[in-house]
Design goal:
The protein contains 7 helices and 6 strands, in the order E-H-E-E-H-H-E-H-H-H-H-E-E. It is of the alpha+beta class and 232 residues long. Strands 4-1-3-2-5-6 form a 6-stranded antiparallel β-sheet. Strand 2 and strand 3 form a beta hairpin. Helix 3 crosses helix 4, helix 4 packs antiparallel against helix 5 and helix 5 packs antiparallel against helix 6. The longest helix is centred in the middle third of the chain and has 24 residues. The relative contact order is 0.20.
């Protein structure tokens, strides 16, 4: 499967009892999944949410097979606009996750520290940007794209041929214009910096044997939700 992106969160709050923490984790997954179902315009995808307590640490990942990405991109007229749009949808889902992860601790002064990962689509967007800026050729971009998607090519044989055509027909970027991708990357960087406390406080250490990690995942939209609780 192709990595579409993800999010790391850290919220400096006290440890939770196991049952309460498990309920918090599954509810957060359900809210996140519901939002993704509304904004992410691809037909199928897999979701993984890992949440560790003793302070709240969240790792979220979204992935999909190449055929589903190909169908999603096709809704937006071109590979470049499609990949940028879908990456924006995933970024929006990351913001939603951060907001809802922190909501139960609204009385706490702690703010979530957020780090977004753009995944393979982010790398593809950067290749388009480099082609537009004349930093690499379409042929060089395809070599890099093969490294990202080549192993999945058999699942959607038209993907690479249409991507090649899209690179070759990417217009040069006018100097006065600013790529939407650049704005997204700047926003992500600023959000991470702004949410980082100027003087980080020491992370509270939970009692030994009282720290847990909850893994919640769905391998596709049509498969059941799985939950696993691990004592650390």
């Amino acid at each position: 499967m192709i990595d579409l992106g993800g999010t790391d969160l850290y919220i400096d709050v006290p440890s939770l009892p196991r049952q309460e923490f498990e309920r918090y984790s599954t509810n957060l997954f359900d809210e996140w999944e519901s939002y993704i179902g509304k904004v992410l315009k691809i037909p199928d995808y897999a979701l993984v949410l890992e949440i560790e307590e003793g302070s709240i640490k969240v790792n979220a990942k979204i992935s999909a097979y190449l055929y589903a990405i190909y169908i999603g991109i096709g809704q937006y007229g071109s590979f470049m606009s499609g990949t940028q749009t879908i990456q924006g949808q995933i970024s929006s889902a990351s913001d939603y996750l951060a907001t809802h992860a922190a909501a139960p601790f609204s009385n706490s002064k702690a703010k979530p520290q957020i780090k977004k990962h753009s995944g393979s689509l982010g790398q593809l967007n950067r290749l388009f940007a480099k082609v537009q800026q004349g930093k690499i050729t379409a042929e060089q971009a395809m070599i890099e794209a093969e490294k990202l998607f080549g192993e999945e090519e058999d699942s959607e044989p038209n993907f690479m041929s249409e991507l090649k055509s899209s690179f070759e027909n990417t217009p040069p970027l006018a100097k006065q214009l600013k790529l939407p991708l650049s704005e997204v990357e700047t926003e992500i960087f600023q959000q991470t910096i702004n949410n980082k406390p100027r003087t980080p406080s020491p992370k509270p250490e939970p009692p030994i044997g009282q720290q847990f990690r909850v893994m919640v995942w769905r391998e596709s939209k049509n498969k059941k939700r799985n939950v696993r609780v691990i004592e650390l």
